[in-house]
Design a protein that fits this description.
Belongs to the short-chain dehydrogenases/reductases (SDR) family. The protein is an alpha/beta fold. The protein has a single domain, classed as 3-Layer(aba) Sandwich (Rossmann fold). The strands form two sheets. The chain has a seven-stranded parallel β-sheet, with helices on both faces. A two-stranded parallel sheet has the order 7-8. Helix 1 packs across helix 9 and helix 3 packs parallel to helix 4. The longest helix has 27 residues. The radius of gyration is 17 Å and the shape is globular.
Length: about 240
């Protein structure tokens, strides 16, 4: 069974690729960094294709290269653009939307014929707990990921019963994307303390949830946002 991982060169995408490969999936890895993709493919097997998700034609070609039958698609692409609303530009909003929401839409649209050719296909998109929780300086990324959750719900309804569609919504996770927030030990410790489980996420935490949603074990789950956040979105352990 072939599973497409978009954003496979990133922290969560690479962790998910390794998990799925160890479970017997053939991975078709898509990302912007050719060297990282080649290294990942050399490690776990499968195929890869280089594409920027904001390049519609390149993304379509990369997804089509996965073949005519695809059992799963994970769109592990995100951005962390934190600015107060007074400093957010139209360019910021458009870039975040194109990367997070429009790219996810195109990915599903291009993969749909191959997903329909497979039995019990599954799609996993990535959101953030900031959509439901609400954090300062998250207006641009909150709008973009909110659109991802709306897309997920619409697709889950439209594509049922043939294809399941769900979201994973992590809290701050230690990946290269989040290095600006996690590389400072003082800042990382302070943010970790805001979580009931008292640590930041690891890439494999979110990857484990996504791997479950892509597996037959989740065959009766669709239209859901799964928070992988150390309890931050729902629990208050102090005060």
């Amino acid at each position: 069974m072939t599973t497409i991982i978009i954003g496979a060169a990133g922290g969560i995408g690479a962790a998910l690729s390794r998990r799925l490969a160890s479970a017997g999936h053939t991975i078709h890895a898509i990302g912007r960094d050719a060297a990282k993709l080649e290294g990942l493919t050399a490690e776990i097997g499968g195929t890869n294709a280089v594409a920027d998700v904001t390049d519609r034609a390149a993304l379509e070609a990369a997804i089509t290269a996965a073949g005519p039958s695809v059992s799963g698609l994970a769109y592990c692409v995100g951005s962390i653009n934190l600015k107060p609303v007074s400093r957010i530009t139209d360019e910021d909003v458009e870039r975040d939307f194109r990367l997070n929401a429009l790219g996810a839409f195109h990915a599903v649209q291009f993969a749909l014929p191959a997903l329909k050719a497979s039995r019990n296909a599954s799609v996993v998109l990535f959101s953030t707990i900031a959509v439901a929780q609400g954090f300062a300086s998250h207006a641009s990324i909150g709008m973009a990921k909110g659109a991802v959750e709306g897309l997920m719900l619409s697709l889950a309804a439209e594509l049922a019963p043939k294809i399941r569609v769900n979201c994973v919504a992590p809290s701050l996770t230690k990946t290269p994307l989040a290095a600006a927030l996690t590389s400072s030990e003082q800042m990382a410790t302070a943010i970790a303390a805001l979580h009931p489980l008292q640590r930041l996420g690891e890439a494999d935490d979110a990857a484990a949830a996504a791997a479950f949603l892509l597996s037959p074990d989740a065959s009766w789950i669709t239209g859901q946002v799964i928070n992988v956040d150390g309890g931050r979105s729902t629990l208050r352990t102090k005060g």
